[in-house]
Amino acid sequence: VYAGERDGSWNVYMAELGEGEEWFYAATDVSESEVVATDEEEYQPRFSPDGKEVAYLAERTVLKVKNLDSGSVRTVMPGRWNYSYADGDQWFDWSPNGEWFAVTFLSRGRYYADAIGLVKSDGKSDPVDITNSGYVSFSPRWAMDGGAVIFMPGATGRGGMLHLCAWCNRARGQ
């Protein structure tokens, strides 16, 4: 599953190998189908853990999920919870059981996505802030078979200067 720009709009597509094909890089028979193709910009698709649904961003800030069997689309997290400055600056990750997403989102009325939260994949809840720090955090990922969420702490403008947290420096071997 991937995003592609066609006819001036980003949409979500899926490619499948033909019968007898084993590897995409060497395939001579590949079929492509539209997963989501609307007037909205849709990108950053990810399969659910069971492969029955595809999550994606619409208009760069709205987290949506499409059920591949029924074709139904639901909004998991409305755009009011995010603001995008550039492609790829929003993060989300399915939980291993498919019931949750770890997400970045706007907290406390800020103008940038600074918090890491959890939101139910059914779209019936608001994100719950699990960082509650006031500092920028990004790139949440599930770990320990869904028992934990890991994320990168970012930079902060506290004190009028830009600082990189010590953890980030250790991760880089500095």
Q: Give the percentage of residues in beta strands.
A: 35-45%
Number of helices: 1
Distance between the termini: 37 Å
User: What's the helical proportion of residues?
Assistant: under 10%
Give the uncertain stretches in residue-range form.
Answer: 157-174
Overall spatial form: globular
Output the structural class: mainly beta
User: What topology, given as strand order, has the largest sheet?
Assistant: 4-5-6-7
What about the largest sheet? 4 strands, antiparallel
The tally of beta strands, per DSSP, is 15
Mean pLDDT: 82
CA radius of gyration: 18 Å
Assembly type of the shown chains?
Answer: single chain
Order of helices and strands: EEEEEEEEEEEEEEEH
Kindly summarize this structure in a few lines.
The protein is mainly beta and 174 residues long. Helix content is 3%, strand content 45%. The strands form five sheets. It has a four-stranded antiparallel sheet, with no helix packed on it. A four-stranded antiparallel sheet has the order 8-9-10-11, with no helix packed on it. Strands 1-2-3 form a three-stranded antiparallel sheet, with no helix packed on it.
Explain what this protein looks like in three dimensions.
- Helices cover 3% and strands 45% of the residues.
- It has one helix spanning 166-171, and strands at residues 2-6, 9-17, 30-36, 42-47, 53-58, 62-67, 73-77, 92-94, 100-105, 115-120, 128-129, 137-143, 148-153, 155-156, 163-164.
- A hairpin with a 7-residue loop joins strand 10 and strand 11 (128-129).
- It is mainly beta.
- The radius of gyration is 18 Å and the shape is globular.
- It has one helix and 15 strands, in the order βββββββββββββββα.
- It starts with a strand and ends with a helix.
- Strands 4-5-6-7 form a four-stranded antiparallel sheet, with no helix packed on it. The protein has a four-stranded antiparallel sheet with strand order 8-9-10-11, with no helix packed on it. A three-stranded antiparallel sheet has the order 1-2-3, with no helix packed on it.
